[in-house]
């Protein structure tokens, strides 16, 4: 991801056809982006870092968006699988930079259904992880 300036609120940028604006930035805690493009991606995604007990840290990535039109198919078959792989790679890179071993980590998905189509898409994606 490339931004038009130093990481800060209101910085814009993205990768490929996906464009964002930073809507919230708390160094070492949270960064939140709002989708600008494609127009059929409406919502946000963010990373949060939370300190846990026993000198542990949890890094989470959340997407909360609605997808419509032709973007539904591109999200299901192209963007989401590539996105998930990149997020997993970024988590692995963070672990390596901290001197930790990379291990298999479960994919935890909480996918709210906002419509019948959303439920269909969410169920397809959940099943894909069990059979691929």
Outline the structure in words.
The protein is of the alpha+beta class and 132 residues long. The chain is globular, with a radius of gyration of 16 Å. The protein has a single domain (2-131), classed as Alpha-D-Glucose-1,6-Bisphosphate, Chain A, domain 4, CATH 3.30.530. It has 2 helices and 6 strands. 33% of the residues lie in helices and 36% in strands.
In a few lines, what is going on in this structure?
This protein has 132 residues and is an alpha+beta fold. The protein is built from two helices and six strands; from the N terminus they run E-E-E-E-E-E-H-H.
For the structure shown, list the relevant keywords.
single chain; 132 residues; alpha+beta; Alpha-D-Glucose-1,6-Bisphosphate, Chain A, domain 4; six-stranded antiparallel β-sheet; globular; disordered C terminus
């Amino acid at each position: 991801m490339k931004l038009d300036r130093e990481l800060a609120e209101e910085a814009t940028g993205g990768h490929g056809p996906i464009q964002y604006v930073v809507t919230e930035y708390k160094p070492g805690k949270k960064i939140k982006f709002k989708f600008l493009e494609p127009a059929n991606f409406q919502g946000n995604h963010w990373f949060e870092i939370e300190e846990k007990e026993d000198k542990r840290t949890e890094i989470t990535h959340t997407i909360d968006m609605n997808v419509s039109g032709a973007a539904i198919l591109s999200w299901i078959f192209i963007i989401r699988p590539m996105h998930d792989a990149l997020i997993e790679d970024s988590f692995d890179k963070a672990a390596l930079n901290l001197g930790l071993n990379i291990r298999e980590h479960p994919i935890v998905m909480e996918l709210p259904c906002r419509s019948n189509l959303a439920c269909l898409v969410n169920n397809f994606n959940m099943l894909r992880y069990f059979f691929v």
